[in-house]
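SEQUENCE AND FOLD
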Amino acid sequence: MAQNGSEAGPLVAGVAGRYASALFELARDERQIDAVAEALNQFDGLLKESADLRRLVRSPAFTPGEQEAAIGAVLDRAGIGGLAGNFIRLAASNRRLFALPGMIAAFRSLVQDSKGIVRAEVRVAERPSDALIEEIKASLRDIAKSDIDLDLVIDPSLIGGLVVRMGSRMIDASLKTKLNGIRLAMRAAQ
């Protein structure tokens, strides 16, 4: 049974889900799931690094020709080709670049589900040591009874401790939450 409780796998909806499902099926048929995932992760990294690329992807102000040419240049320069490159070019030619981050996330979800990997987001106040990260992964692996894809988010507002979100479960062991609880208890005692 999938994480969301369905037998059919993860829920992917909307434009992003349809595109991601089609790409996943094609990549599976061509036995290129890992190569496509790696290329999409590379493009996602470029998106996160470049405000100009994010603007190109999100803005409807660019003409289809401008978007296609610019995306083609970015893909060529980054060496992203094959199914992933063709997929991104198709999204550009169909004026669906705005949905590309969602498509990448949905594809990632499909890959993880097919491999039995559970995604976990861990928020911490500051970057923990590699040994502590491995300890957190091992603990989550024991709970999930599955491999874990850990997404580490640094959030200084937590002050200390951590917040873990895995599927529909959330554990908040942050100092910020504990201090807020003490504050509320003191107000109630007055």
In short: Residues 179 and 185 are 10 Å apart (CA to CA).
